[in-house]
Amino acid sequence: MFTNSKLAQSVKLACAFGAVSSLGFAAPAIAQDAGADEGAVEKIQVTGSRIRRADIEGANPVSVLDAIEIEKFGITSIGDVLQSIPAAGSAINTNNNNGGNGTTTINIRGIGSNRTLVLVNGKRWSPGLGGSVDLNNIPASIIERIEVLKDGASAVYGSDAIAGVVNIITKQDFEGVHASAYQGEYISEGDGNKEQYDIGFGVSNDKGNVYFNVSYVEEEPTFAGDRPISAVPVFGTPEGFGGSSGTPNGRFMYYDANGDFQNQTGTGQQGGLAPWTEPGSRFNFAPFNYLSTPQERINLYSQGRYELTDNVSAVATAFYGNRKSAQFLAPTPLFFGAAFGDSGYVIGADNPFNPLGIDLSTDLPAGDPGWLFLVGRRMFEAGNREFKQNVDQFQFNGGFEGVLELGDSEYYWDVGYTYADIAQNTLTDGLLNTDRVKLALGNECVNDASCVPLNLFGGSTGIGQGSITQEMLDYISFTAQDAAGTTLESYQANITGEVMELPAGFVGFAAGYEKRWQEGYDQPDALIAAGITSGNSRQPTEGSFSVEEFYLELAVPLVADMDFVDSLDLELATRYSDYSNFGDTTNSKVGLKWRINEELMVRGTWSEAFRAPSISELFLGNSDSFPPLTDPCNGGAAANPNLPGCAGIPAGYVQPNSQIRITVGGNRNLAAEEAESFTYGVVYAPEWLEGASLTFDVFDIEVEGAVSSVGAQSILDACAGDGVTLCSLVQRGSQGQIVDLFNGLVNLGGQTTKGFDMELAYNFETDFGDFKFRLDATYVDDRSVIIVDPVSGAETPFREAGRAFDRDVVPRIRSNISLNWVNGDWTANYLIRHIGSTVENCSISASLNDELCSDPNSGPDGEDYNELGAMGYHDVSVGYFINDNLRVTAGINNLLDQDPPVSFTTFANSFDPSMYEVPGQFGYVRFSMTF
């Protein structure tokens, strides 16, 4: 495996299959830079090091996916492909509707997508405000291969490379034209249509080459109501359970003229009110939501190289992408009242639609006649809420590279400039101006000709129908227009070569310098910034920072050509970074590679890593969020005698709404995260079984000072538990209701994850064709997040391995097993994507836990648990070369029509879209042409 002849055989066999590796399986990383003389041993760069070397196997664990392997997934986003590799954890994608924004990210090791660095051709790709890269805007048609480094690499690349690095290598020196057309949809349901078209062409001569590519993708949505698991708020529960208090007929909680508390709902008749019942009166919002969201993407990519002299070339790449995406939610719920800490709301006695004849006011003393505790009215007449993004992304990389010859040595150098800009405009329909709502409900509106009285009591019979007229809507509604953007600019200079010869070989080195600037902004609509919206209000975000960096790498051969030591190499790297906002940091890396013989190699690394806080984390303006939370103090102090934090809460208190208003925001005083990682393992390619290889690597990552929020539910539970921890972050009203909760960002605690990766490959030939078997598996032995209370210093660990949390599923085992077959013009692929079982806390309700939780009362303190069972997605595809230039491929993803396991902790859909897929068999066909 380690000899040139073995490498040549591997490459030939890979070409026969059309793939270098399968789904992140171990494979030689092909040269990132070419140009060696014919007959010479080519020196290349492999992701994880900037040193050019002849040996493609380094101390770092690197896996490779090539263009054909990517195509076999049968999906249109490279982000979705990367989310399927076993080393990846939960991450946002286009199946995230409520809380999504059209992006798809990669989260190696599950410790945060902003802790995975994304490169294109070795250059940093521009992230969004939050520090994560949207992989949707990188078209699959330009990709030659993807190298995935599953190890920390800040010493080589700088910030963000804590969990790993994804390096996307584009097509190089392509001549001719390639084009493809793709279409797919969910077979039985006939929805979720996806189309992709692309064309690329390249020309070259002895002085240089140019490549240009255009791609277009359109993805249609699926609706939550079209799948049983997502058609209700909580699958398997009685009708209305988990639904919203904001209903088309309204919910009204107030004290009447006699001082009696009323909890009522509208009857659908003008002024008609009836007692509210649980859960039957609640509104099922689920069918109105997208399950998978729509997108339209157009991408233009070009790259070129021109030899100015024999040893100097000018190089440039340019990319432009436009993404139009959307999310769709049920009509706006108008919530207001003392339950939310609101003031200034009065439903006047003179309002012609008030059936009660008294003023209902949030500003009266609690419990007085007319005190308005809660109103929840679903504004069906205004139609659904739609959030539409229009994102333009541009990136340019240009510079010079060449070879410097000094004596018998060659030094490869490059200098370059990068400029990237992302601009996003967002339109949100269906929002309400709450200042106008207050005016329209009050007594003064009746005598103001410019004001239109609002009728909340008449009810609605369907979308666009009900007691709220178009004139009323025109007076209180608005379309929000938000703008956001980021800019990245940098200069780089690098050099690599050999500096001296030792008895065991030459010492290789790489050194370089980079200066980088990043800035970003988020400018919400004026009404949102002013806090007079029925949606989430937020303040503007704006900020910038710069960094200056130097790095040095060495590859030192220690011993060679001895018994049991074919070679022993030491790899060293260090990087100094000086940031304008938090100071400087130095991070180093040590690797050791011991090749025992041609069959067996042992390797290991220790590295320091860091992550600078993102623009959003530093400068995010305070904003509202409405997550689903369970108040541990339900029932008041009397019902919770073992929870000191519930003291003083009135008996009989019931959380008025499942979604609670909280405040989130950035922190300009954040420091950089720091991390240490260890990896060690073996690579084995036995001569007695040609075509077989095995890699086994152990990983151990610890992050300190992690930038995160504690978590709203964690804050509530910690405060209730002892009456001290994090209680300063919770604000309650006079009736015990949560008025606000601050869940801002801090350098609080850390994360750890430990486990191993195993990759097994076997290529073999038969009379019936050539086969390639691959197994890629990741086992997570430990995963924890440590939060530290900023006041008491108490540490609380959570997020353990084998557990599932809302949009953070941590299975102990994920694996991909594939079998590829090639015989003449025919190809076939069978893939099983296995996701191991996990366990979640199961707190549905006292009456339903025993019925729906798989393991009630099974926790150490009698907690109820629910198991998300292990499952596997089975994908098949068949390809045929119609002629030398035209190939057709057809496939079915989720062949066995597996449904994801039901989850009771996940917000919306009753399954977690960050790990599992939309239910249904997805069929597709692709035509590919080259000439």
Question: Can you tell me about this structure?
Answer:
This protein is mainly beta and 931 residues long. It has eleven helices and 47 strands. The strands form ten sheets. It has a 22-stranded antiparallel beta barrel. A five-stranded mixed β-sheet has the order 1-4-5-2-3. A five-stranded antiparallel β-sheet has the order 12-11-10-19-16, with no helix packed on it. The two termini are 34 Å apart. Residues 1-31 form the signal peptide. It is a multi-pass membrane protein. Residues 375-895 form the TonB-dependent receptor-like beta-barrel domain.
What keywords describe this structure?
931 residues; mainly beta; five-stranded mixed sheet; 11 helices; elongated; Plug_dom_sf; transport; signal; tonb box
What layout of secondary structure does this protein have?
Layout: H1 4-17, E1 62-66, H2 67-71, H3 78-83, E2 116-120, E3 123-124, E4 143-149, H4 154-157, E5 164-170, E6 176-186, E7 194-205, E8 208-219, E9 222-223, E10 251-255, E11 261-266, E12 273-275, E13 290-292, E14 295-307, E15 312-329, E16 333-336, E17 346-347, E18 360-361, E19 372-378, E20 385-406, E21 409-432, H5 434-441, H6 470-476, E22 477-502, E23 505-523, H7 526-529, E24 541-562, E25 565-579, E26 583-595, E27 600-611, H8 615-619, E28 623-625, H9 636-639, E29 662-664, E30 673-684, E31 692-704, E32 707-708, H10 712-722, E33 730-732, E34 738-741, E35 746-747, E36 750-766, E37 769-788, E38 795-798, E39 804-805, E40 808-809, E41 813-823, E42 826-835, E43 838-841, H11 849-852, E44 865-868, E45 871-881, E46 886-893, E47 922-930
Keywords: Cell outer membrane, Membrane, Receptor, Signal, TonB box, Transmembrane, Transmembrane beta strand, Transport
Domain TonB-dependent receptor-like beta-barrel: 375-895
Family: Belongs to the TonB-dependent receptor family.
